[in-house]
Amino acid sequence: MDMPRAGQLEKRRRRRMILLAVVAVFTTGVSVGIAWIPPALPSLDRDSLFMGKVERGPMLREVRGSGQLIPVDIRWISAPLEGRIENIPALPGVEVTPDTVLVELSNPEIEQSAFEAESNLHAAQADFENLRAQLSSALLNQQAQMATAESQAEQAKLQVEADQKLFAEQIIPELTLKLSRLRAGQLDKQNSIEKERFEKTESSSRAQIAAQEARVGQLQDLYELRRRQVESLKVRAGIHGVLLELPVQVGQRVPAGTNLAQVAGPKLFAELRIQETLAKDVTVGRKVSIDTRNGLVPGHVVRLAPSSQEGQVTADVALDGPLPLGARPSLQIEGTIEIERLADVLSVGRPSFAQQGGAVEVLKVINGGKEAIRVPVRFGKVSVSTVQVLSGLAVGDEIILSDTNSVDGVDHVRLIH
Questions:
Q1: Given 2.40.30.170, 3.30.300.30, 3.20.20.60, 2.60.40.1730, which CATH number is that of 46-70+267-416?
Q2: Cα–Cα dist 416/48, whole Å
Q3: pLDDT reported for residue 28
């Protein structure tokens, strides 16, 4: 009875061992099979990527910079005299003309001086008119006396001629003739004296009038000076343009020469900041297109800063066309500077990591746009949106331009839609 039971136990043990061996073999085979399966490719969403296709033909090299519009003429308007600010009729940002009043000052001393100067001028003008009337009357009296003396002298001469005829006819004695001649001589001398006196009186009158005219002229100039000083208390812009700053307040007392306002003229130029690595190809005279966000304005480079600041070089651009509406000082702008035109080169859209003359690896699209592989490429000259291809790509090749940091170090990726 014990023998059959021992045989069954042996059979069960043998089956268990066979089952365990089969499981071990299966597990080993599955593990080996999994090890031989290639890993899944990392993927990128094609719709979120920027692509570029290699082309052959001309390539325009450009450099881009940002900046702002700067007035050609900026003036600080200063206080002509000491005074107290009574009114500020204009505010920063308004357009002004040469006669626009920016600040109104008050100065009682200047106003009092102007009033006194005007009073003195009116008094001097009245004195002048009075003097001229007096001298004119005196001159007329002297002229009348001279005319009387001249008439008496002529009468005496006629009397001498008559007495000579009468004496020749022995009608009158010789004494009467001598007396007549004596009287004629005296009247002739008197006439000469009156003429000389009239000439001296006339000369004296002219001198007195000239002196009084000079005094009136001096007082007139003084009054005009005081009047202009009072008028200058209304500080005006002086030019056409835009009011930029008014660093004063009503009630403030300011000495002469204090800056009251800053006015920018209507003519503007563009100031661009260019990366130092790209600015070496920019020269004076290069064509520029200025984007004001409301239109494009042509221009040309007129000055380059001799040194860089914070890795950027400043370029001044003269504007060759009219500015669009809304263009004002300090308006933020973008500028594109044309450097050169390459005639027949391979070019592609510029990846964000492309550097002039640099050797990099890019992801080239293959398999009908389903995959991309990493290939070495050497770039040549760069522009704002394009770059020259020296080696590694051919016409028609398509590459990924976007930043692909998520697959750095991966040589093969899958593109999904």
A1: 2.40.30.170
A2: 10
A3: 64
Residue that is written with structure tokens 């000439």 in the block = 199
The strands making up 234-236's β-sheet, listed across from edge to edge, are 234-236, 101-106, 83-87, 253-254
Q: What is the pTM of this model?
A: 0.57
> Residue 3 has which token pair?
């023998």
Architecture of domain 77-106+236-264: Beta Barrel (2.40)
Strands (E), 226-321: 234-236, 241-245, 253-254, 259-264, 268-275, 287-291, 296-304, 312-319
| Euclidean distance between CA atoms 85 and 254, whole angstroms | 8
Where b means 16+ CB within 10 Å and e means fewer, 248-280 reads beeeeebeeebebbbbbeeebbbbbbbeeebbe
Question: Measured in whole angstroms, how far is the alpha carbon of residue 108 from the centre of its chain?
Answer: 37
Q: How many residues does the chain have?
A: 417
Cβ(383)–Cβ(350) under 8 Å?
Answer: yes
Backbone angles phi, psi at 362, to 5 degrees: -125, 160
Question: Using 50, 70 and 90 to split pLDDT, how confident is the model at 152?
Answer: confident
Return d(Cα 122, Cα 236) in angstroms, integer: 30
- Please report the pLDDT score of residue 36 as a whole number: 47
**Cα(410)–Cα(41) distance, integer angstroms:** 9
Sequence-separated (6 or more) residues with CB below 8 Å from residue 89: 101, 102, 104
3-class DSSP state of 410 = coil
Give the pairing of strands 101-106 and 83-87: antiparallel
What pLDDT score was predicted for residue 34? 46
